[in-house]
From TrEMBL:
The active site is at residue 65. It catalyses: Hydrolyzes single-stranded DNA or mismatched double-stranded DNA and polynucleotides, releasing free uracil. Excises uracil residues from the DNA which can arise as a result of misincorporation of dUMP residues by DNA polymerase or due to deamination of cytosine. It is found in: Cytoplasm. It comes from Lutibacter profundi. PANTHER family: URACIL-DNA GLYCOSYLASE. Coiled coil: none annotated. One of its GO terms (cellular component) is cytoplasm. It holds the Pfam family UDG. SMART domains: UDG, UreE_C. GO terms for molecular function: uracil DNA N-glycosylase activity. Its main location: cytoplasm. Its EC number is 3.2.2.27. This is Uracil-DNA glycosylase.
Length: 221
């Protein structure tokens, strides 16, 4: 696996790329992409970083692993390629934005527009085998994304972290709560949302309220 990542992140993450676990992970991913159909495309594995520079970073949303259906994943958590049907979790995200901010439900499920405004859409695991959810978990990605969150926590301030569901909340232990703002709730998946753990969280207006208080430009959700 060749690490194709934006220059602003190379400076921050280079020490991780040199560690033995990451070299083993890179070899695992390379082998998987040769022998299996995997997502996202190889040149989009680090797309979340390439579309959201370290300097511009304002918000972090943490997902679990990429969508494993054909044509869905493109390197941003919860996001799908242009023209692809919206998965259930994304539908619930958009419904919450609709009621929270009173803006129309969007046609496109491609969240690049958020990334370019400083939202890091980070999956805990950056790759997956087709039709096999969680197939690349516990191979080193989690250690890498823990390091990413730690670096952001150490080197930035006033970042808003959105931790949705138990998996994301575990990452919260890496964040300095005195320097950053953390919002938690249930996962937007139908299972969680239909039990009342998602709708009404108003996270999107809360993010913008916080950014406004810190005199940081708000996100156009």
């Amino acid at each position: 696996m060749k690490v194709e990542i934006a220059e602003s992140w190379v400076k921050v993450l280079q020490p991780e790329f040199e560690k033995p676990y990451f070299k083993q992970l890179a070899q695992f991913v390379k082998d998987e992409y040769i022998t299996n159909n995997c997502f996202p495309k190889g040149n989009q594995i680090f797309e979340a970083f390439n579309l959201c520079s370290f300097e511009d970073l304002k918000v972090v949303i943490i997902g679990q692993d990429p969508y494993h259906g054909i044509g869905q994943a493109h390197g941003l958590c919860f996001s799908v390629n242009e023209g692809v049907a919206h998965p259930p979790s994304l539908i619930n995200i958009f419904k919450e934005i609709e009621t929270d901010l009173n803006i129309p439900y969007p046609k496109s499920g491609n969240l690049e527009r958020w990334a370019k405004q400083g939202v890091l859409l980070l999956n805990a695991t950056l790759t997956v085998r087709a039709h096999n959810a969680g197939s690349h978990q516990k191979k080193g990605w989690e250690e890498f994304t823990d390091a990413v969150i730690e670096k952001i926590s150490e080197e930035k301030k006033n970042v808003v972290f959105l931790l949705w569901g138990g998996f994301a909340k575990k990452k919260g232990s890496k964040i300095d709560k005195n320097k950053h703002h953390i919002l938690t709730c249930g996962h937007p998946s139908p299972l969680s949302a239909n039990r009342g753990y998602w709708f009404g969280n108003r996270h999107f207006s809360k993010v913008n309220d916080y950014l406004e208080r810190k005199k940081i430009e708000k996100i156009k959700w």
